[in-house]
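Sanity check

After download, print the first record. It should look like this:
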Amino acid sequence: MSASRTSVVWAGAWAVAIVLIAVIVFILQKTRSVQVSFFGLHGALPLAVGLLIAMVAGVVVTLVLGTARITQVRRLARRRR
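Expected structure tokens:
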């Protein structure tokens, strides 16, 4: 028996809700301030914020590189047709 689109969306919504709750708990537990130095910039911020910024930066880099690779593969496939 295959799942309907609605049930897939419903399961996805639950998964996102659980992840968001975990992120909120993580942020609330990591409020201690830490010193950060990056490319000559210095400052203090909560540990959770620093980790979340690093995570978002990693996601952005992954998306940019993945998009470049997908574009490259599509161009190659178009040329071969």
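If your output differs, re-run the checksum step. Summary of this record's structure: The helical segments are 5-29, 47-80.
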